[in-house]
Amino acid sequence: MAPYFAAILVTVGLSLVAETVLGSEGRVVTSRRLNLRYIATFCMTTVTLVLILMAGLRWMVGTDYGQYERNYVEYRDGFLTSLITFDEPGIRLLAVAASWINDDPAMMFFLAAVITVGLALRTYLRNTDGPIAFVLSLYILSASWHTSFNAVRQALAISLIFAAHRYIMQRRFLAYSVVVALATSFHLSAAVAILLYWIPFRKIRISGVLWIVVGTAMSFLAAEQILRFVLEITGLGVTAYVLRTVDPVRVLIALAPLALYASYSPKSTDDSKTWFYRNLAVWHAAISVPFSTSAYLYRYTLYTMIFMPLALAALTEFKQPLLRQWARVGIILLFGVVWYYEVSQTPDLNPFKWIWDRP
């Protein structure tokens, strides 16, 4: 677990420095602001490099690492065919690009990490006004970071969708649709992310909440039919993984932000952007309940999970600074305990092995 703890310490420590520096920028003379910006940029660049390098230089860490390693040659040589059939050609193009640099599956994993982690961190930083350390800590502790270890193709698709949500904010449906199509070239499940375009930009009314509750209950009752429908579309067979249910603790964590949503008192500084993130927390909770009946279905919640650090930052933006601080500390502790339990008990993630440990 040592590499994971080191990554968390670097992320939290340097993020706090950047947060402090940027927060004090308005209180210093103009001649010093540029130097402060350099410090913050250095801190965030270092965090980005640490998380990318750890993800990109791992070996046999992640559920499907071995499968991707074995499929590398097929990916590399099958790009043109997959482009014609649209059999997720994105990963194959990535393998081709890797072969031009160094014909080794390790290079494919490294390029995937650069795109996945790089896009995610860039998007967080562009959309975080203040609590940088809180948001980046949750990126790790909510499992979005090590999702790139376990589900390489889907993680690539998720990061593309996440980076493109600015088009949702700008109401540019065509541009967002193009990115969704690009994301499906890595993982066909990304097609469902088109629905994020219709997440509302204001607080959901009571009537809307009731409809969501009814829809969630009906979906839970029809979970078996939903699973059968998805399997028929994807052509996936029934496996132990498909039938495995999700840990109830994970579902409870998805539901917990609803309490914050219900208790949140709007402020004059609230805008459509922050309400978009808060409403995503409701959407995430709503789909987590019915999809928890299948580990395979639950992977669809990863498209909303990556937004949760921003959603929780918005949901804890209380008027009272002390309440805001303690709420965020409590959330970090909760996610931290669950993260430690999951990672430490998962042989595919712990112990962490580097690429130079490869025989």
UniProtKB/TrEMBL annotation:
Pfam families: EpsG. The chain crosses the membrane at residues 39-61, 106-125, 173-198, 204-221, 249-264, 276-294, 325-341. Keywords: Membrane, Transmembrane, Transmembrane helix. InterPro entries: EpsG-like. It comes from the Bacteria. This is EpsG family protein. It comes from Tessaracoccus oleiagri.
